[in-house]
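Amino Acid Chain and Its Fold in Token Form
===========================================
Structure side: the spatial fold of the chain, written down as a series of whole-number tokens.
Position: the record begins directly beneath this header, with no further notes in between.
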Amino acid sequence: MFMIDTILLVVSCLILIIFVLVGVAFLTLLERKVL
């Protein structure tokens, strides 16, 4: 159980980081298009 919980925690953290990076890149692209 401990290994499964650790893997799920790592995967969820990676997904969160990826979403943040995609959001930041999307916002910068929008700002460049607007400006």
Notes: Residues 1-34 form one domain. The longest helix spans residues 2-34. The chain has a mean pLDDT of 93.
